[in-house]
């Protein structure tokens, strides 16, 4: 299980970083609505990790699949959030101010709130998508007709 979630978690994080850099290249990285595609990317990584694990293992248990989904999305979230923290605090310090200005907040806006929001959104997306995919991939307990 460790090899599957590590491979797919790192791969998902690389895709998230590549998507962010692509939007940066185009000049659309300051629009938070485009981060909705992050959910699709994380969902794809979790789904393909679960499919791979189920194909390799004959005994696919719900608990193990659920852990695999959480670990895959969690690893991708941690790596992507670390990249964004480096990007926000060291590379483009005006990026966080531009994004937070679009939120129309009336208090002292720090860059850390953007990283915290990113982590919370990543983990909540991971949890919900793992629950959803496990409903699709779990073994049925219904008896087979004879």
From TrEMBL:
Organism for this UniProt entry: Pukyongia salina
Q: Where are the transmembrane segments?
A: 7-27, 33-50, 70-91, 111-137
- The highest taxon in the source lineage is Bacteria
In terms of Pfam families, this protein maps to: DUF4199
Q: This chain belongs to which protein, by name?
A: DUF4199 domain-containing protein
**Upper taxonomic lineage:** Bacteria, Pseudomonadati, Bacteroidota, Flavobacteriia, Flavobacteriales
> Keyword annotations for this protein?
Membrane, Transmembrane, Transmembrane helix
